[in-house]
Amino acid sequence: MNLIHTLYQPAGVGPFPTVLTLHGRGANAFDLLGLAPYLCDGKFMIICPQGPLETPIGPGAVGHAWYPMSMGGAPDVEAILSARQKVQVFFDECLKSYLIDVKKLVVLGFSQGGVMAYSLALADPGRFSALAVLSSWLPQELLPHLNVPDAIQSLPALVHHGTQDPMIEIDRARKSVEMLRQLRVPLTYREYEMGHEISPRSLAELSTWLEKKIGATGGSPLQ
User: N or C terminus of the chain: which is more exposed, having fewer CB within 10 Å?
Assistant: First the structure.
């Protein structure tokens, strides 16, 4: 496969409801794998690809990213779209290799990975059963390049953000939510008294939301 990745597979014979999980800048393929036992009691397969770009995170330390930082300027839309293509190729290979229930498929992104999740789901909502974006934003400059189809109005979306987030200000999340509402995305939006993180409360509510939405959209509820 074209991207390094980690994987959690539930017990049983499959196919499994699956979350494609996209980490934030400076993290790696292990960063969000720990969510697995907390999402619907470990019933989801979790696939965690690693961003293709190395990025320094401190003296002698390197993390990974999906696209370069804009350093306060406009986002590099072409770089985002190029990264999206890499993830699409990767996930096509996953569909051939792993026991994925294509009717119960979620894309989830944290921080920079949330931008990637938006780019995937808004452009091709028919592929996914749900979209979850945590501590992230939807770049306005990206939206015209996605050619968002009317099918987006049938894709459940969840957005969580911390009111004390020092890295991605809460106003950026609120503006993103307004764009989603203009597209008529069926949206659940929650704010928490937290920073740039996934708190125990937000994780528990994410799990409850997934149990409800994937059961509703993918046939019978998770067993």
Answer: C
Q: Could you give the residue ranges of the DSSP H alpha helices within 20-76?
A: none
Q: CA 116 to CA 110: how far, in whole Å?
A: 9
Which position has the token pair 């190029």? Answer: 82
Q: How many CB atoms are located within 10 Å of the residue 6 CB?
A: 17
Q: Which two tokens mark 161? A: 């953000």
What residue numbers bound the domain in which 88 lies? 5-61+76-217
pLDDT at 1: 80
CATH number at residue 102: 3.40.50.1820
In angstroms, the CA 12 to CA 94 distance is 18
* pTM summary value: 0.93
Strands in 42-122 per DSSP E: 45-49, 53-58, 61-65, 100-110
